[in-house]
């Protein structure tokens, strides 16, 4: 029996925050192995690179092709329009500003409180869809600069959402304590080389939205902070195999 063919242990419905990147795609596989029913949500917040939004649909389609057991559990996809975020930020992801490290230690790609907003909208959607678990790829290990990715922030959100909705709303972050090499290892563990290849080929991480060059770890410019992390993690994981 392949890892993907195992029956889910948890009867709840999960809503995965799927951006189309490596981390959220690994989280989708994690949720599909664990929960009886899984739906996905994405956010259009005026990203400079819309390619990410295309990748999220491709990842879903390719997962269904490669893993029929998971296809049977994968439900609807939802895309929420959050372009109002452009009114609140001056981020390099949205405007044409260069990506740089700011004096406060955060990259200029940071949208203040973005994950808090995403989780709040996701929770409202989950409530309507009968889902009681939110799954996100937030991680302290590689992105400790983002305060809304920290474990305590997300635990506080779980409490606030559960109280505010008056129903249990779990916030699961399977990558919280993994580095990028360990995320590749988790991917392999969840779905073998078929899943690893799918993540390499079809997910998007590059901040610049470049998919012209195919590296061993996937497509991207190869030099932005996101590409550098992804490449270093892949290299460390491959070396340990
Ligand atoms: Zn890049």
Question: Which descriptors apply to this entry?
Answer:
7 helices; alpha/beta; binds zinc ion; 43% helix; 15% strand; 241 residues; Rossmann fold; five-stranded parallel beta sheet; two-stranded antiparallel ribbon
Protein topology:
Blueprint: E1 10-17, H1 22-34, E2 35-44, H2 51-66, H3 68-71, E3 74-81, H4 114-129, E4 133-135, H5 151-165, E5 170-172, H6 180-202, E6 214-215, E7 218-219, H7 225-240
Parallel strand pairs: 1-2, 1-4, 2-3, 4-5
Antiparallel strand pairs: 6-7
Helix pairs in contact: 1-6, 2-6, 4-5, 6-7
The structure holds zinc ion.
Describe this structure in words.
- By secondary structure, the protein is of the alpha/beta class.
- It has a single domain, classed as 3-Layer(aba) Sandwich (Rossmann fold), CATH 3.40.50.620.
- It has 7 helices and 7 strands, in the order βαβααβαβαβαββα.
- The strands form 2 sheets. A 5-stranded parallel β-sheet has the order 3-2-1-4-5, with helices on both faces. A two-stranded antiparallel sheet has the order 6-7.
- Helix 1 links the parallel strand 1 and strand 2.
- Helix 1 packs across helix 6, helix 4 runs parallel beside helix 5 and helix 6 crosses helix 7.
- The longest helix has 23 residues.
- The radius of gyration is 17 Å and the shape is globular.
- The two termini are 22 Å apart.
- The model has no long low-confidence stretch (mean pLDDT 88).
- Zinc ion (ZN) binds next to helix 7.
- The site of zinc ion has 9 residues, from helix 7.
């Amino acid at each position: 029996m392949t890892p993907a063919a195992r029956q889910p242990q948890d009867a709840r419905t999960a809503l995965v925050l799927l951006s189309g990147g490596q981390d959220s795609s690994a989280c989708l596989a994690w949720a599909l192995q664990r929960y009886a029913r899984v739906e996905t949500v994405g956010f259009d917040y005026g990203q400079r690179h819309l390619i990410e939004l295309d990748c999220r649909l491709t990842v879903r389609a390719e997962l269904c092709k490669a893993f029929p057991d998971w296809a049977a559990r994968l439900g609807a996809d939802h895309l929420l329009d959050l372009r109002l975020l452009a009114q609140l930020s001056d981020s390099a992801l949205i405007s044409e500003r260069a990506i740089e490290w700011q004096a406060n230690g955060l990259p200029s790609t940071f949208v203040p409180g973005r994950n808090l907003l995403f989780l709040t909208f996701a929770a409202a959607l989950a409530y309507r869809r009968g889902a009681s678990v939110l799954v996100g790829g937030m991680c302290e290990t590689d992105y400790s600069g983002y305060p809304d990715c920290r474990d305590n922030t997300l635990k506080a959100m779980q409490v606030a959402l559960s109280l505010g909705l008056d129903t249990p709303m779990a916030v699961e972050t399977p990558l919280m304590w993994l580095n990028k090499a360990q995320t590749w290892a988790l991917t392999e563990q969840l779905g073998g080389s078929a899943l690893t290849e799918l993540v390499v080929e079809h997910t998007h991480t590059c901040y610049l939205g470049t998919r012209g060059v195919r590296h061993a770890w996937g497509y991207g410019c190869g030099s932005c902070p996101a590409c550098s992390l992804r490449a270093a993690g892949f290299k460390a994981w491959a070396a340990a195999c």
